Every structure is written in C-alpha cells, then in structure tokens.
Amino acid sequence: MGKKQWILHEQHSQLAQELAAGLSITPLVAQILINRGITTVEAGRRFLQCDLAETPDPFLMSGMDQAVNRIQRALDGGEQIVVYGDYDADGQTATALLVRALRRLAADPGTVSYYLPDRFDEGYGLNSQAVVALSDEADLLISVDCGIVSHREIIEAHSRGLDVIVTDHHEPGPELPPALAVLNPKQKGCAYPCKDLAGVGIALKLVQGLGVPGWEEYLELAALGTVADLVPLRGENRTIVKRGLERMRDTKNVGLRALMEASGVEVPTAYDLGFRLGPRLNAGGRLGDSARGVRLLLTEDGSEARELAAELSQENTRRQQVEMSILEEAVRAVEKYGLDKRPALVVWGENWHQGVVGIVASRLVELYYRPTVVISVVEGEGVASARSIAGLHLFDTLSACAHLLTKFGGHAMAAGLSLPRENLTGFQKLFEELCAARLTPVDYLPKVRIDAKAQLAQITSELVAELNMLEPHGVGNPYPLLQAEVSVLRTRKVGAENQHLQLTVQDGTVQEMPAIAFGAGADQRELERLAEAVDLAFVPTINEWKGCRTLQLQVREWQAAPGVDNYVRRWMVEAHPWKLGPSYYQSSALQAPDTPRGPVKPHRLVDLRGTYDKIAAVRQRRQGAPTLILVNRAVSVLEVCRALRIGVAGGSEFIGFEHEWLSSEERAELGRSRFTWLVSTGLRLTESSWPAVWLWEPPLTPDIHAQWASLVEEGGEMTAVYGPKDVRELQMHLQREYPDRNALARIYLLLREGGGRLSLAQAADKLEKAGLVGALPAAMGVFSELGLWAVEEGVIIYLPAPDRKLDLEQAVLYNKIMKIREQSTLYLKRSLERGFLQDGLKREN
Predict the structure, then answer these.
(1) Is the pLDDT assigned to residue 755 strictly greater than 50?
(2) What is the pTM (predicted TM-score) of this model?
(3) CA gap 539, 556 in Å, rounded
(4) Where in 646-782 does DSSP place strands (E)?
(5) Mean pLDDT across the stretch 281-301?
(6) So what's the pLDDT on residue 547?
(7) Of 68, 178, 502, 710, which sits most exposed with the smallest number of CB within 10 A?
(8) pLDDT tens for each residue of 464-518
(9) CA nearest 482: which of 511, 515, 523?
(10) Structural element, H or E, at residue 385
(11) Whole-angstrom Cα distance, residue 799 to residue 753?
C-alpha cells in the first residue's frame, strides 16, 4: 500500500465513559460517536434510534407553504402538472417519488407527467427549448434536483403562463430564481435544520408537506437517491436511509424489486445502494435515456420492470467497459508524461465518452491522489469533469482559470467545465501552478482517519453488534476504523486471481485472529517481511461461511509499526528474506570441538521434549524473563529469533540474537542492548550464565551438550523443548552440509557447467538453488585436497582431471566429514531417548 497519513481522532476518555453509561454501549463505540460529532446522551439516542417522528417539520423549510398551496390548487383544479427531473440517480428517484405521490393525490393520475433532459443534447437543469414545449402541455412545473440557477428559463416559463416551483439541494447563487416557490434548505434565511438533504430528500419533504397518506413508503426511493448522491448520512439523511433500507427488504415497488433482483441484492445495505443499484440508474443517464430509470421505478408491470432492470444492468456493464477503456488510456498518458509527479493531473482525449469522464476522474484520484481534470475533446471543444483532494477548493481554483474556460460550475470537491481546444495546454499549466501554490506536501498524502486504537481482545461479536447500530455508513458516517499493532503469523493469497490476502494475526491479548485485506494480494511479501510489528487499520466484522460465524478483521490499510533501530531489526526486517553465505548453514561447534567452556553448575532439568507449540511453551513459562534459547547453526538462530519476535507479543522489544558471525559493530550493539531473551549458538557466550536455558534443538554432540549446559547459572534450569521434527531437520542438515560421495559428485558436475571457472558467489548462487549451499565449504576443502580445484582470490578454478581415478577415502577432510556426520547422526537418535537428559541432577517433568 502506498504511503498515507494516519490521523488518530482526539480521544475523549471521560466523555466516552459518560456516553457509554448513558447509552449502554462500550466506551470504544462511544468514542466513535464522539468522532461523528455526537457529544451528548440525547444526541446519541437520536443518532441510534432514527425516529421518523423526530424529523423536522417540513414547513420549517422556506417556501413550503407557497409550494403546497399552489400544488393543492392544481390538484383541485385538475391542472396539468409536470415534474422536471435530472438524469442522475438522485434526480430519477426524486422524479419517481414525486410523480407517485402526486398521482396518488390527483383525481386523474393522467394529469401528472414528468420530463428528464438528455444529458448530452440538453445538459443539466432547465433548458429553454424544453420549457417552451412543456408550456404548451402543462400548467405547473415542479423541478426536482435542479433549477436553482435557471433564472432565464423560469422567466421564459412564466412569460408563457407556466408556473414553476423549484426544489433543489445545490448551492444557490447570489439571487434566487423568480419561481413561485423555492424549496432549498441552503437558501439564505431558511430555518430548516438539515442543510444536507439530497434532491430526493427535499422531494420527500414536499410530499410530507402535502400530507400524502402512507408517505413512509417513499422512504425506499429517498434512501436510494440519498446514498447515490453522496450526501452526508447525518441527521435526517441518516434516518431516511436507515428506515428506507428496512422497508426496502419487503418493498412493494415492482420496479425497485426488479432492480434489486437484477443487482443480486436480497437484503439491501447502504453499500448496495451506492455500488449496485445507484450505478445502474446512473448508467441509463450516462449512456442513453435516463427516463428508463424513472419508468422502472413507476411501473406496476412485473414483465416491463424485469425488462427495464435487465436493460439498465446491461448499460451498467457497457458503462464499466467504456470507463475502463478511457481509464486505461488516461493512465497511459499519465505514465508516459510523468503527470503523476506534477501538482495536478489534467488529461484529455478525443471523443472520450462525456458520460463517464467524472467516474474516470474519481478513479485517477484514487490511483494518484492528485486534483484531477479529465477532458473529452469533441469538435474543438473540451468538456470535462474535475475531482479534488482535501485541502483544495476546486471551484475557487477553477475561478482563477475562468478566462480560459467557456463555462464551469461545481463545489469544493467536484466540478464540471468546458473550454476551447486551443486553451488545453494553457489551462493545464495554470491549473498545475495553482495547485502547487495552494497545496502542501502533506496535502498530497491520502488520509487514514482512525477512530480509536484497540487490542484484539476487545474485538468481540458483542462489539460488532454494537458497531452495527452505527449503520448505515457512507459520506459523513464512515465505517468505524480501528487500529491495532499486531504481528502477522501467516498469510495466504485468495481470490480468483490471488488478488486478496488472508492474514492470521496476534497481539498478545489474542493468540490468533483472522483478517482479510481485499485487493492486497500484491502486498504479501512486504507484509511478511514486516511481520513482527504491523499497524492494521481495520473494520471488525463477522464472516459467515457455510453456516459458521467467525470474527474477522477487514483490513483497510496497513503500515509498518514504529520500532527501535538496531542490528536485530535490521536483520529481521530490512534484510529479510536473507541471502546467507555457506558458513551460516554449518555448525561451527562441529568444526571446533575443543571450544573452551566453563564448568557445569548444579541446575534443574525440565523435559518438555515433543512439545507441539514451542513458542507457546516459552511464552507461558518465561513471560519475558531472562532466557537463553540455543540452536546449532547461525541460520537457525535467525529463523528462531524471527519466529519468536513474531509469535510473542512485544517480542520485537526484548528478543535478540547472537551467533559467531556477528560483525564487531553488531557485537558492540549487543553489548549495549537490553534483550532479555537471546537466541544463540552459545559458542561466544562462554563468559555468561543464564537463569534459564532452552534447548530449542537437540545438541549435535556430547561436547556441544556439555557446553550448552555450562551456560546455566547455579540453581537455574535447562529446558529441553525439541521434538522428533527437530531431529529430522538436523539429520537432513547433516546430509546436506556434510556431503557424501554422491553429493560431492553432484556438486562437482553442477559447478563445472559454469565453464570450469566461477566466483565463490556464483557457486553459492548455483548451490543455493539446489539446496546445497551449506556444503560448499566441505566441497572446497575436499576437492582442493584431491587436486581437483584451486581456490584463488575468491575464484574456484577447475584443474585438469588426474590420470588415475581418485579415491575419496584417501582425503583426510572427507573422512573427517563422514565421521562428524556419522557420530552426530547417532547422537541425534539418542536425543529423544528417555534417559538422554539425565546427568544425576534433579529433574522436573
């Protein structure tokens, strides 16, 4: 995952405790409510209950009285009413909602009709040509989700005897349009408290004001349009969506039911509205006739509904294909010209479909996190959609480019604009300069806003149930994002294309917890490298699979947890996966059997041989107390140290390693460190003694056994925790690193393929691929003794083959190797016998 800025919400523990007590929730969930602006018990109660009876009186909205009176007069007089909508999902649902309600009130439902402009031929909002045509057919026009800036068109309508009521949620200009009534809570002086209603939300308030019986059934359409239009899910919007989703499960709306079936949705969520149903309605407006969505939501014919829903699904698939094609073309341009290194992205292409450039702009922001303008150039004119990032007010920035633009409009985060082809490069240059001046380097880091830090033990099914009370989630009420520092025990790629990553993590409060990181399959190697300490930003969930319900962390982001910089971390994290020299794979004690050692002092023996989970055993019995953990080879030191630092909570803070190949600088660091657990071969620790020594592997010889025992302090204990698996692995080590006749012949032939002359590094690379890198020192010694190789200045040189057949038995080193291998193999077999550890000292079972 790319670099992002993690921001932890300010934590208010005292207030969280008060809210928790007053609302009967955990302090963790109370803190999340505080982060959403809920700071009193009463506000929390309203947030959680979403009581429709507590939504504001519609007549608090300026213009509601006038609008209701004029509509009622039209209904009473049998006047022709036309609802003028918009081509997006908000406009379509608002149109269908208001038409349904008015037809229910009208003596003749045929007096109520609707009109949606064509996205490409007519554009957004009221247009004069449509107004002229509609004035010949209707007496009253009611706009939904548009009209707040249509001054000229409304004057035209009135001049032709067509009364106009505007309902719109977009930002008003300095002056309101001259309509009979304007319903927009954002207008100056409006007392309506919820300023963030979508267009369909304002249509719903008008229906309430009209006193339509059973108005609650329209909550379904209001919920769909509200989520699809990305308005904040706070206050009344939250209530609309929450109650609308509940009703939608058993909807009587034939078209809505067909749309759900075509989308594969049974029990709808806010996610389904925003990413399954909404896009299908939008696709109709983006690629063709948006009125199909309204027809679908109005029809009572099941066959027609299924046909329209299938058609919109096909349009959505086509929209995705068109979007992907343009996105790929845009990405190629970004990569070719290095636009992602500039302060902003401005890309254009010939005849890009104007219906999807906004989505492409959003995708580019997700990929590169830059203010982005995507322009479709058609017949010399560029039509564009722009998307911003936090920190840049897009409308204000475009205002500074106005002299280069034909027209533009929008708000802080999104905008539309057009400009002549000849101004493209000038606009690109100026827009980049403005973004560079108005944004800081930190602004270019995507933000990850953390609600609270948690321990995995706090993640329970009861917590998930409480968090579910915070739904629906969306803009203004994001999914609760928690942070935990964990170690990653295991990873596994999943998904049809291995695009997802399953994790098993722990933090000491919980031994294992499953997690899933969608789309993070490519991060597997990096996560495994950093496994000892990773920060996860996650949403707690319940995973249901084949009737089983299990807790699961849904990982949204991750980063390396901060750690102390020392030689151990550099080896465990930065240098992993390791590329080790041959010496790391050999037991130095076997090459130096006369290593000096101190006396063996009286100590206790603890026999835990055969323990299934060695890490759990040492974690449980030692709990961070001073412990020396012994193995035979430097490579095993590294492997065991890494496994312990991952498997023991906080292990990266107190577990270190030592072996005979440490550099002088690393050994000096070791001397200054405060590791309480040390993984070692024990060869260089002859002057130290430990209260607890754990034999992680069996010793290879009696001398090694005695040397390890000498490291236990008087009255301490030596614990044997190895088992049959460790014995088998060491036996295989002896076969690999102390090669017999066949293995030596294989090495000789394998390395001769290089032409008879190769560096030690090249030889090690070849043997590593064959699993024989640890045998290189033995092979070098034997072949040099027999006159088959010369090793000069780090280069192996094949010498001419001798005239007579060589007898390996005549090589002193070969005989020594075979003797070591034979004696150690026999000693390993004994290491599991009952009396192996007995030496006359007291023993504990």
Answers:
(1) yes
(2) 0.87
(3) 7
(4) 655-658, 677-680, 690-695, 712-720, 757-759
(5) 88
(6) 83
(7) 178
(8) 999 999 999 998 999 999 999 999 999 999 999 999 999 999 998 998 999 999 9
(9) 515
(10) strand 381-387
(11) 14
